[in-house]
Amino acid sequence: MIPARKPIIYIISAPSGSGKSTLVNELLKLVPNLDFSISYTTRAPRGSEQNGKEYYFVTRAEFERMIRADAFLEHANVFDKDLYGTARRFLKEAEQKVHDLLLDIDVQGAAQIKHKQPEAVSIFVLPPDRKTLEWRLRKRGEDAPDVIQRRLDKAGREIENYDKYNYILINDVLEKSIESLQDIVLAERFGGLGRPLTESEKQIVERAERCRLANLKDRLGPILESFRNPPPAAQ
Ligand code: ADP
Ligand code: 5GP
Description:
Layout: E1 9-13, H1 20-30, E2 34-36, E3 39-41, E4 55-57, H2 60-68, E5 72-78, E6 82-87, H3 88-97, E7 100-104, H4 107-116, E8 121-126, H5 130-140, H6 145-158, E9 167-170, H7 174-190, H8 199-209, H9 217-228
Parallel strand pairs: 1-7, 1-8, 2-7, 3-4, 8-9
Antiparallel strand pairs: 3-6, 5-6
Helix pairs in contact: 1-7, 5-6, 7-8
The chain binds adenosine-5'-diphosphate (ADP) and guanosine-5'-monophosphate.
């Protein structure tokens, strides 16, 4: 009997406004057999969000009932306000379908998953610098100026977790970032092929390797610096 293939868990985290949702949406169109884990949250839906599409929106009582029933692979209090969690059932369903699973979760959730499943593949999306992040948050037009300021401050703290991730994706030119993300996902799948790679597969692996944390150290310095020493807030 052929042993069941375990799904690869891909974790993607990023400070708000880095372009994570944009990248994830494009990735899901490009890569077959990759399921998105729809999280449960106690926060209220925003804009056009629909229950069961972006999130399952539940009450705190229901969320706590799920915690007691051990229904979550991980869960966290994000922004010290709302609860968010990844349901175990998505992993089980992916396993049955022989699919892989993509989790869009924060740094706390990523740490919990990596602790339980060290082989999970983690990707941290960074903006090219703080000024660009600020501009993208403004362009998105979803948040008031004080909320944008809070998101920027929080980004500065979140970014310091970059070195806990396997890959770093600096989201500068969108098309290139989508390609890099696809390369990472495919390269990780090649590990399970059990045969020598073709030339084009080897090129994908080579490109994915460029996003490895260890191979990016030089480019990260200026990005981190732009967050560590931001200009004073405009009056
Ligand atoms: P997140 O999910 O990380 O909060 P979004 O995907 O909502 O971020 O992106 C924030 C804004 O930046 C959106 O208006 C999006 O269209 C834009 N954006 C995303 N990636 C890029 C990029 N590489 N270049 C320019 N704009 C981008
Ligand atoms: P938002 O409310 O803006 O959609 O998401 C806020 C943050 O919560 C994002 O960083 C997102 O990645 C994170 N998040 C979404 N779902 C989960 C989850 O299931 N678990 C954890 N730990 N974080 C999540």
